[in-house]
């Protein structure tokens, strides 16, 4: 299965619904396919200007390194020079904090989602809710 536009929109809609239900700050959501190509992106009214880029960096880091951005943060804490070097290789488009998850359909990697706008933990909760609402599995670590 590939990550279709319809599935990406389901993920975004559910993630933003979770955010509104929890009273989170405005969010930006980026959905990438397994090739790290953009499938869908939305930003809520009032989101700050850097949030889409941060959300993209969370999703991109996850898909490029094959781990959720929470795991990437843990790696950065243990191997700061390595993650810094990888971020340089990625052109600075890697954000190693929670809020970026891999999207799995069974055992098949089909994409990644990144969210930014609230605390990293809240961003991650919205990502997971969106992915699960689409009947898929989120990998955070």
Q: What summary fits the major beta sheet?
A: 5 strands, antiparallel
Helix content: 40-55%
Q: What are the secondary-structure elements, in order, as H or E?
A: HEEHHHEEHE
Q: Which structural class should the secondary elements be placed in?
A: alpha+beta
User: Which descriptor suits the 3D outline?
Assistant: globular
Q: Proportion of β residues?
A: 15-25%
Number of strands: 5
Distance from first to last alpha carbon = 22 Å
Strand order, sheet with most strands: 2-1-4-3-5
Poorly predicted regions are none
Mean pLDDT: 96
CA-atom Rg in angstroms: 13 Å
Question: What's the gist of this structure?
Answer:
With 141 residues, the chain is an alpha+beta fold. It has five helices and five strands, in the order H-E-E-H-H-H-E-E-H-E.
What does the secondary structure layout of this molecule look like, with pairings?
Elements: H1 5-21, E1 28-33, E2 38-43, H2 51-65, H3 69-78, H4 80-89, E3 100-105, E4 108-116, H5 120-133, E5 137-139
Helix pairs in contact: 1-5, 3-4
């Amino acid at each position: 299965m590939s990550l279709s536009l319809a599935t990406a929109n389901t993920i975004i809609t559910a993630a933003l619904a979770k955010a509104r239900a929890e009273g989170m700050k405005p969010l930006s959501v980026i959905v990438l396919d397994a090739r790290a190509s953009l499938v869908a992106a939305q930003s809520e009214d009032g989101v700050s200007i850097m949030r889409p880029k941060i959300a993209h960096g969370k999703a991109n880091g996850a898909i490029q390194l094959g781990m959720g951005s929470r795991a990437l943060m843990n790696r950065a804490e243990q191997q700061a020079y390595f993650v810094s070097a990888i971020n340089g290789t990625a052109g600075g488009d890697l954000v190693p904090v929670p809020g970026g998850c891999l999207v799995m359909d069974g055992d098949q990697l089909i994409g990644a989602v990144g969210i930014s706008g609230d605390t990293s933990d809240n961003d991650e909760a919205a990502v997971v809710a969106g992915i699960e609402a689409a009947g898929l599995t989120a990998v955070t670590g």
